[in-house]
């Protein structure tokens, strides 16, 4: 069988018969590729489209700035909220502290009365025996409206009987009534110009002294606010601490630490059968001096006590002194150390310049402390009516004796005979020098209380204590002749002072049939011998000054 001839390499391939329909047109613009040796063709699927390019983001610097801006904005918002909260709390606290404060400018003080919800309280405390009931129980119903037209935000009234502000204890009137057995006479431990003091036991067993201000006394309300504002920030081992307070209607109550060992006045003048030894007297003098120096020089602004006396120096079981009764203390700005319009003091302790000017400074407290030192040295009361005129005052009697004793070193003429000369001579010299310096006629010649403390401690020479005293004037201790305060002026002031004190004594005696020390139990009779707490107005002092000047 013959083999067909192979086609020539140059000859075209044989044509195939057209037995099928023409291929579908290619729509994806791809060319056919051979798929097999027999010359057939297939269409390839197009490749998947490439992934879309990533979106172009913000530049890295812009993104960082945006984040920082958001954070700063959040911080600013937080700081703003914090400032708002702080100012809100401060304003709320200020409004609370000024609950019974002075009226805004332009408002009649007589029409200034904060609204207080009327509440039901326990029965009124029974006045001590001999006290006129209508004077003690003159409690007016609290006001339920206010006549103050102010554009300030209204301040909601405090809860009845709850103390406000500071970090003090909060007490209801019922709490304090329960602590004192409804303010019973058996718990009465003293009374003063503004009210009564009762011993009480709180629910936690703490023993306290509760000072209840006389109702209806505008001065008492101002005293209350002064004490709360000041004493809550005053802390010293030789000062009586304020535990808390209570406002309920027109009632104002202060709660103090109870100091159990009575007063210096009681131990010097009212306790029969016992004599305070010299070392105890020295310790009391130094402690009281430290407490008073703290008020004058460490408190900002300084505090003038204005009623330093033996009855306001309390003693604990160890006979450590604690100065009490800050109801008479007020702020004293450096630019104005004067008393405003009305003050309170005790005759026999008050500085002589007060009679002529009606003004008190910290140097007036120094004079009063000097009188206390004289009591410790001599055992005498500030005023002894059994003695002739001018000798009835411990200051006028002792002043020349102090000068002589310091010159000659002999103290027998005036030292308390009950000591039987049992005292340290160096300590006696220091205390006598301090007493003499404190009761100088001229206020500016008196030392500061810090100087008195150092002199009592023996850490300051007596020459430094007398700095500024003109030589040749008995070293400044006993002379009546001073360049700025003559004996004539002093005597005139003392006559005027006595007259005012006697008039005030009659006024006080008509209101109180018995006067006790602020905290003293069974006070000495000195309280009824011209030493009552007396309210003396500056207007009266000015009137007396005019009368004296007109008669000379």
Automatic annotation (TrEMBL):
Organism whose genome encodes this protein: Hibiscus trionum (Flower of an hour)
This protein's UniProt keywords: ATP-binding, Cell membrane, Kinase, Membrane, Nucleotide-binding, Phosphoprotein, Receptor, Serine/threonine-protein kinase, Transferase, Transmembrane, Transmembrane helix
Matching Gene3D superfamilies: Phosphorylase Kinase, domain 1 (3.30.200.20), Transferase(Phosphotransferase) domain 1 (1.10.510.10)
Principal subcellular localisation of the protein: membrane
Ranges of biased composition (kind: Low complexity): 524-538
Gene Ontology cellular component annotations, sorted alphabetically: plasma membrane
Uppermost EC category: transferase
Membrane topology: Single-pass membrane protein
Extent of Polar residues compositional bias: 26-41, 140-154
UniProt-recorded name of the protein: non-specific serine/threonine protein kinase
SUPFAM superfamilies, per the entry: Protein kinase-like (PK-like)
Residues covered by region (Disordered): 1-57, 130-163, 516-552
Stretches with biased composition (Pro residues): 1-25, 45-56
Membrane-crossing residue ranges in chain numbering: 63-88
Residues reported to bind ATP: 211
Bias kind Basic and acidic residues: ranges: 539-552
Domain Protein kinase, first and last residues per copy: 183-462
Subcellular location: Cell membrane
EC nos: 2.7.11.1
């Amino acid at each position: 069988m013959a083999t067909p001839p192979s086609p020539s390499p140059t000859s075209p391939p044989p044509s195939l018969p057209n037995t099928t329909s023409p291929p579908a047109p290619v729509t994806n613009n791809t060319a056919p590729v051979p798929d097999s040796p027999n010359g057939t063709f297939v269409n390839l699927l197009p490749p998947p489209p490439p992934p879309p390019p990533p979106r172009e983001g913000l530049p890295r610097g812009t993104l960082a700035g945006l984040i920082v801006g958001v954070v700063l904005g959040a911080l600013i918002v937080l700081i703003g909220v914090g400032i708002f909260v702080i100012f809100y709390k401060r304003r709320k606290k200020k409004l609370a502290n000024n609950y019974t404060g002075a009226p805004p400018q332009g408002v009649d003080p007589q029409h200034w009365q904060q609204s207080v919800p009327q509440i039901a309280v326990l029965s009124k405390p029974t006045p001590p025996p001999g006290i006129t009931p209508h004077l003690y129980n003159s409690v007016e119903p609290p006001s339920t409206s206010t006549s103050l037209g102010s554009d300030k935000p209204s301040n909601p009234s405090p809860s009845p009987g709850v103390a406000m502000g500071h970090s003090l204890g909060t007490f209801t009137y019922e709490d304090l009534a329960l602590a004192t057995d409804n303010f019973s006479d058996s718990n009465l431990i003293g009374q003063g110009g503004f009210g009564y003091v009762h011993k009480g036991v709180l629910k936690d067993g703490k023993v306290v002294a509760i000072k209840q201000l006389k109702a209806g006394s505008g001065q008492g309300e101002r005293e209350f606010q002064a004490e709360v504002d000041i004493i809550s920030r005053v802390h010293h081992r030789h000062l009586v601490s304020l535990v808390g307070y209570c406002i309920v209607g027109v009632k104002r109550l202060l709660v103090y630490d109870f100091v159990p060992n009575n007063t210096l006045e009681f131990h010097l003048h009212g306790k029969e059968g016992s004599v305070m030894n010299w070392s105890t007297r020295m310790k009391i003098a130094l402690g009281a001096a430290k407490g008073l120096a703290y008020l004058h020089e460490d408190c900002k602004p300084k505090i003038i006590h204005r009623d330093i006396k033996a009855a306001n120096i309390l003693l604990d079981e160890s006979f450590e002194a604690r100065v009490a009764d800050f109801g008479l203390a007020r702020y004293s700005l450096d630019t104005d150390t004067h008393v405003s319009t009305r003050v309170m003091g005790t005759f026999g302790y008050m500085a002589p310049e007060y009679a002529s000017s009606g003004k008190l400074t910290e140097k007036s407290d120094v004079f009063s402390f000097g009188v206390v030192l004289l009591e410790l040295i001599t055992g005498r009361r500030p005023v002894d009516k059994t003695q002739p005129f001018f000798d009835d005052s411990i200051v006028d009697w002792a002043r020349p004796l102090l000068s002589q004793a310091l010159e000659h070193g002999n103290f027998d003429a005036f030292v308390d005979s009950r000591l039987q000369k049992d005292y340290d001579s160096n300590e006696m010299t220091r205390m006598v020098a301090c007493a003499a310096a404190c009761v100088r006629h001229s206020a500016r010649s008196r030392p500061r209380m810090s100087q008195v403390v150092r002199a009592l401690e023996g850490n300051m020479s007596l020459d430094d204590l007398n700095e500024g005293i003109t030589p040749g004037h008995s070293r400044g201790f006993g002379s009546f002749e001073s360049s700025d305060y003559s004996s004539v002026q002093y005597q005139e002031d003392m006559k005027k002072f006595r007259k005012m004190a006697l008039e005030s004594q009659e006024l006080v005696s008509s209101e109180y049939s018995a006067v006790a020390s602020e905290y003293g139990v069974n006070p000495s009779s000195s309280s009824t011998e011209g030493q009552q707490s007396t309210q003396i107005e500056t207007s009266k002092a000015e009137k007396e000054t005019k009368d004296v000047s007109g008669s000379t």
